[in-house]
Amino acid sequence: MKLRLLLTTVLSLLPVAAFAQNTPTADADALVNHMTLAEKVGQVQSAAPAIPRLNWPAYEWWNEGLHGVARAGYATVFPQAIGLAATWDTDLLHRVGDTISTEARAKFNAAGPKADHDRYMGLSIWSPNINIFRDPRWGRGQETYGEDPYLTGHMGVAFIQGIQGPDPAHPKAIATAKHFVVHSGPEAGRHSFDVDVSPYDLEATYTPAFRLAVTAGQVGSVMCSYNALHGTPVCADGDLLNGRLRRDWGFKGYVVSDCDAVDDMTRFHHYRADNAASAAAAVQAGTDLNCGGGGRYAYADLGNAVAQHLVSEGAVDQAARRVIAARARMGAFTANDPYADIGNERIDDPAARALALEAARKSIVLLKNRNNLLPLAPGTGLAVIGPNADALNVLEANYHGTAVQAFTPLAALRMAPGIGLISYAQGSALAEGVPVLVPETALRTGAGSGAEPGLTGDYFDNLDFSGEPKLTRTDRTVDFDWDKVPPAPGMDAHKYAVRWTGLLVPPGAGDYSLALRFDRCFDCLGHDAVRLYVDGRLVLDDPGTGKDADLTVPLHVDGKSPHRIRLEMVHGGQDQGIRLMWQAPADAQRDEAVAVARKAGAIVAFVGLSPDVEGEELGIVVPGFDGGDRTDLGLPQTQQQLLEAVAATGRPLVVVLMSGSAVALNWAQEHADAILAAWYPGERGGRAIAETLFGVNNPSGRLPVTFYRSVRDLPAFVDYAMTGRTYRYFEGAPLYPFGFGLSYTRFAYDGLALSTANLDAGQPLTVTATVRNVGDKAGDEVAQLYLTPPAGPLAPRRALAGFQRVHLEAGESRQVTFQVDPRDLSGVDAAGNRAVEEGRYQVFVGGGQPDYAAGVDKTLEIHSRQALPK
Predict the structure, then answer these.
(1) Distance CA 86, CA 362 (A)
(2) Band of residue 297 on the pLDDT scale cut at 50, 70, 90
């Protein structure tokens, strides 16, 4: 203490420049003591301003890295988090996190450590999302690691440790576990929702992954969620933040609010009368950093809160110390940066691309394979159909970066060696009332014999189409993600214009609508201008003043005759890309797909969902979808009718589900020959799917969620009680159970052994078993350990307590070993108290859950009782 006081006194006498240069270890107390209240208030807001007198640059804390550095230009785009979870591979998650932080460092270093850093260019990564995917209707469930606390916690720890690196004193970046806590929809009410969660469910389901992220992952940041618990907004809940998080779990990092959550406390929760009072309550409870947007930085009123004696300046000091200490650990105040040599050449480098492909391969789950149709025989001619066969957004998902190079499944299949003729038809819309990409089959560069599928794109390096184009090329579709990147090499990412010309060739007569969709940035200062001409007539002219992400034009056609089309886009705003979309007559689309299917050796149907219909607070209300959430679990009717129509041709049917959540494929399970779940698979996802269809990749993913048969199997979406949800509490028969996944080979288990059959409560348990590849192909197996506790009114049916992914050649065997600690053997009572309880337990090790997979089991007797801390 005397040393710190002396340091503070000395620093206060130094010139400002000397102060800035003599803080390599950044004693946060000394730094804060040298700041004014206004400066401290500025530093606890996510857009922290520069402090010129201290030579501190501005720093925007907000950065995203859910499955790759997001919204900051080029980055490696890995499978969406739910796909990463399907790998059940903690080593893979660690390497993914490591790659993400490497690319974040490259972007940070490109600006220079002493330069101002804008949003998405910093080292504070607001990932992973370790909320429990308790209900498949939640649109943001795709961002999570699934429905199980154990799987979520261990995958989250691996990702966090990969992001942060091996040295806590000098993290490569800081991960953020979010959204703490009990947050999983509905999206429509998330800013004001009050969760009445039981003490049992809070302890048994909603907090374990966060506890593991803190105690095992040593996560540097935690984000408090929008919702309230029992009337108290989480960001103002001192029992949770200062109590559970810091006191009970020993959290040493900083807490950041979800964006605008403190402002929500005033506007929607009505917890306090104004933002000064809400900010005071949040700081007092332990929320250190305020994320805001659109001018709603509630912590800007902290100075007023101190003046009104709503909160002490000491509490503000504590928040400032935590965030400044984090900046110091990331190297903001020192020239000795161990990561200073990471440059842009590390972004999407060959190793990162290989890792993205590995992740995509391992994420694919084989759900059905009747008569071993898959892998397809070499040379098989394919009819590729479905709205997800050739769409970039189902590769990239939400919270994504811009892929340097991404191949859709259609493009990847065309490039794969040894495949027969590929024919393609879109076949249907994604869902009723939802525009889908205008496919290449409906576009032609011209009318002559040399015309190609697609449109001719003329790219100009100015905003008025003057002079000769910088580049002219054929674009198969207008489907581009140009977020902070140029449309072509050598062009300016911030100033260009594009003109697409050619023919629109409809599949049949009827009423169409054309739509232009833009990925709008947050808090944009301006949007791109567009003009659309059909048959020489200007049908849409938008100068970029609107806020709508979709611009729609009706179009009636009498037949299949082509129509001239010209689309002009002027990128003078901040939009992040453009898609030319349509709604076409369902019969015409379906008939086109049936005609293609009749000529093929097999049909591969790419169906499912997309980030256009499931996601964060979306402005969509159509049958089956509401505001980003789902109201039905079934495949949308337009796609279901497509599957039935092509199946009637009698050709073998392979269904590839691309989605961020479980879809009730009841008809497909009965009628299709094979089914793959490919999730939103990232930049290399198309190649991974093609490799899996033809046997280059043996599918090895396992489901991180339960696939229910109907929404009627579930309790109300707004009910956060876990009764009747997830494999742990669901009493019905699932379509596909949690942990399920087939292979092109077969595995068997034997030799299960326990370190003891009679365990004293509080002691760990060691479990071993032998897994054998009894098939004729090499493959990966995910050995899973489940505990079935003694029956009780609150006890889960079973619970995952260990998993290991192993690669086995044909005929190879290997012993797997699980260390089960007392917490994973414990249960929770109605008051939320955790303990290892005496009684008889079943220990099962196999390729999935008991009742659904081959495996071996033994009985374990636990003697006495051992209480455990929260």
Answers:
(1) 8
(2) confident
